[in-house]
Design goal:
Blueprint: E1 2-5, H1 12-25, E2 29-31, E3 37-39, H2 42-48, H3 51-63, H4 73-85, H5 95-112, H6 122-147, E4 150-155, E5 158-164, H7 166-172
Antiparallel strand pairs: 1-4, 2-3, 4-5
Helix pairs in contact: 3-7, 4-5, 4-6, 5-6
Length: 179
């Protein structure tokens, strides 16, 4: 039996952490010295902007999230966004296929980039590719699903497909957004 799920199954704690981090990035919330979250002056501005503008800002902040540990994550997310832009909204895609396509494009980008100091061994590069693959998969299937721009298709507990949601079309209706 197929189960169409738009949001990933996250614990309430992890969901709250993601939402607080996003609201902090958007400068809607700030933490006081005593550790209490308080709305900022930008919070009242947020209430006045359109839903489409809110979605664009949320998407952009998710794409440029600085909490990722590897410096290549942002470039890989940019590649994934460009891949997603080329997909047909009505079609289901296997998420692992999209991750591998993005990773191949990323590696092609690296091969064309100037050499960096402290070259890594082939084994270290392989581990990094695995880590990058895991991270871009998590970002696409969890963070983008939380925003509602990706719909997820499950059979039982297995994620078997994703597609672009109507919200994706709304965000990109007036042209591309660069992360």
């Amino acid at each position: 039996e197929l189960d169409l799920v738009r949001l990933p199954s996250l614990s309430p704690e992890l969901l709250a952490e993601k939402l607080i981090r996003l609201a902090t990035h958007l400068e809607l919330l700030a933490t006081s010295p005593s550790g209490i979250l308080k709305p900022t002056e930008h919070f009242s501005d947020w209430e006045t902007i359109t839903m489409q503008e809110k979605l664009k800002r949320l998407f952009n902040k998710t794409a440029e999230d600085s909490f990722y540990t590897h410096p290549h994550h942002r470039r890989l997310r940019e590649i994934m966004i460009n891949l997603l832009k080329g997909l047909s909204p009505a079609t289901w895609y296997h998420p692992e296929l999209l991750v591998q396509l993005a990773l191949v494009q990323f590696l092609q980008h690296l091969l064309g980039a100037p050499a960096h100091h402290g070259s890594r061994s082939p084994a270290a590069t392989l581990i990094s590719c695995q880590e990058l693959s895991r991270e871009i998969s998590r970002w696409m299937t969890e963070d983008l699903a939380l925003l509602g721009v990706i719909e997820r298709w499950h059979t039982g507990h297995d994620l078997v497909g994703i597609r672009l949601s109507p919200l994706w079309q709304m965000i990109f209706a007036k042209g591309p957004i660069r992360p």
